[in-house]
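Why does residue order matter? Because the sequence determines the fold. Keep that principle in mind as you read this record.
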Amino acid sequence: MAFSQRNKISISFSSTGMTDVVFNLLIFFMLTSTLVHPTALKLLLPKGSAQTSAKPQTTVSITADQRYYVEQQPVTLADLETILKQKLGSNPDTYISLHADKSVPFESVVEVLNIAQANNYKLIIATTPK
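Structure:
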């Protein structure tokens, strides 16, 4: 009597299921990466016709010739962070009002924004009424 095997092991590999999983993961990561904004700054930007209810503790001004002032005192950009720390401390509910001339390059405003973010200060950009 000769016995024969009924179950033969197939040597071929079906990658259909693996392809579906990889495709679904690709779609998931593409969708979630568009929802994340890691470089976004949290700012309080008042509209030109409305007033904000927050009271700033101090003001930082940038003139058209890129001179920096804390209230009425002229400062350099290198000293701006230390002067703000001395004046305001490390209170997380501190508001700073930023007054920048409209001809000031955006890079100068971003430098002040970076100082405010590094010290957890909230920044209000002052505008003129419409």
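The helical segments are 16-35, 77-88, 106-118.
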